[in-house]
Amino acid sequence: MGVIMPTILDMLYREYCRARLAEMRKQLLISARRSEALEAHDHLAHLDDDERADAPRNANDSTTN
Questions:
Q1: pTM to 2 decimals?
Q2: What is the pLDDT of residues 5-46, one digit of tens each?
Q3: Distance CA 26, CA 60 (A)
Q4: Distance separating alpha carbons of residues 16 and 25, to the nearest angstrom
Q5: Where do the H-state alpha helices sit in 1-65?
């Protein structure tokens, strides 16, 4: 009986660590996907701003010529 208790505790601790690591990996993947999505959205927002900025310039250039 003296050997069973440490073995059970060791197994429980290893299972806890495995589950915790899996949870942390999952959270890192989710946060990585979010940051990639935010970067892509931010990049698209900058492109939209540039396109909007170019549109009035083109309109002004055609009206002044």
A1: 0.47
A2: 899 999 999 999 999 999 999 998 888 777 777 777 766 655
A3: 52
A4: 14
A5: 4-64
Structure tokens at 38: 């935010």
- Three-state SS for 2? coil
Dist. CA 17–CA 11, nearest whole Å: 10
Structure tokens at 29: 């993947």
* Structure letter (DSSP) for residue 3: T
Residue 32 DSSP SS3: helix
Could you give the C-alpha distances from 60 to 13, 49, 50, 57, in angstroms and in order? 70, 17, 16, 5
Say how far apart CA 52 and CA 39 lie, in whole Å. Answer: 20
